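Whiteboard transcription, Tuesday session. T.W. wrote the structure tokens on the left side:
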């Protein structure tokens, strides 16, 4: 398959390329990477907000599948720049879906667990759960989902959660694991929220499941894809330091004390009902994926 990837400078895009081209690792029965032709386009190659350029790129490359990883994901900046958030996370997605329809390419769009957070339930959320975003970023990503649904039927909307990967998130100035390790090694005191529960997810595992999903052909729709299990961000940090053998000055804090401009989801654990209905394996538990990441980035020996 010819697979065009937007936002190709990002951490998920990096692992998608490794997996789809056949040089990523494998972590389960459903993995299905390898031997695809990828067309990775970084922002300088293709700004997804330039709808004429998007149209031209798809007419030129004629991909079978487009994977959109581009996003405005600095969550706090989205609060004071809602127009920019909607331009990248919603309007550009609509234009991309229309261009995919024009060349008959399937669209894989990466959404987020931040479409949740305002719901009262503290139970894992399946794809049928009603979204309830709590911040501009989440609303803009949810708008992007809806605009795809009313534009082009051949789509996979994938909601992951808490991503970290070896390329690091450019949008967030590095990923959470890198930041924790760097701060702890510098001896800095580290306060991490203990009242937001989610599922940290390794981009390599997500990339492998996306690769598998697109080879299923016609099972279009909405998919929750994260590593298995859940924890608070404080518990995640504690596990990073335990696995890495780093003594850290770590304390739990609250969202109220942290006082970030954007309200994050207190609970956004996603249940992969749609993948299970296809007979797919769950992704491995998040601590196993974290250990693999720490080995791969040489924080700990194999
Ligand atoms: N990171 C998380 O924790 C997380 C959690 C759930 C869902 N997601 C979703 O997962 C996807 C991938 O995230 P990631 O962690 O891989 O993020 P990332 O590393 O920050 O990658 C995002 C990429 O999008 C690019 N981009 C931004 N605006 C663009 C534009 N107008 N045109 C083209 N490219 C543009 C960025 O380029 P620049 O570097 O030049 O800005 C960056 O390379 C996103 O859709 C995000 O919403 C992320």
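and on the right, the sequence the group agreed on:
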């Amino acid at each position: 398959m010819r697979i065009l990837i937007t936002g190709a400078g990002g951490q998920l895009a990096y692992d998608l390329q490794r997996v789809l081209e056949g040089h990523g690792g494998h972590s389960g029965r459903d993995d299905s990477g390898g031997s695809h032709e990828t067309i990775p386009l970084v922002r300088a190659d293709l700004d997804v907000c330039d709808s004429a350029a998007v149209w031209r790129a798809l007419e030129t490359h004629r991909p079978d599948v487009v994977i959109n990883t581009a996003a405005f994901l600095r969550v706090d900046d989205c609060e004071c720049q809602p127009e920019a958030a909607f331009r990248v996370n919603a309007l550009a997605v609509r234009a991309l879906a229309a261009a995919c329809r024009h060349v008959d390419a399937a669209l894989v769009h990466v959404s987020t667990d931040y479409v949740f957070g305002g719901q009262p339930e503290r139970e894992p959320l399946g794809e049928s759960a009603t979204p309830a975003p709590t911040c501009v970023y989440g609303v803009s990503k949810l708008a992007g989902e809806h605009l795809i649904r009313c534009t082009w039927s051949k789509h996979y909307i994938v909601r992951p959660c808490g991503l970290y990967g070896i390329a690091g998130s450019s949008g967030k100035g590095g990923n959470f694991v890198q930041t924790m390790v760097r701060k702890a090694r510098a001896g800095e005191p580290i306060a991490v929220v203990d009242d937001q529960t989610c599922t940290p997810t390794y981009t390599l595992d997500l990339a492998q499941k996306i690769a598998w999903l697109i080879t299923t052909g016609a099972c279009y729709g909405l998919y929750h894809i994260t590593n298995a299990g859940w924890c608070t961000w404080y518990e995640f940090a504690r596990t990073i330091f335990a696995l890495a053998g780093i003594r850290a000055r770590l304390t739990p804090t609250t969202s109220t004390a942290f006082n970030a401009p954007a309200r994050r989801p207190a609970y956004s654990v996603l249940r992969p009902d749609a993948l299970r209905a296809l007979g797919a394996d769950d992704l491995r538990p998040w601590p196993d994926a974290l250990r693999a990441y720490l080995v791969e980035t040489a924080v700990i020996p194999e």
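Someone added at the bottom: The longest strand covers residues 2-6.
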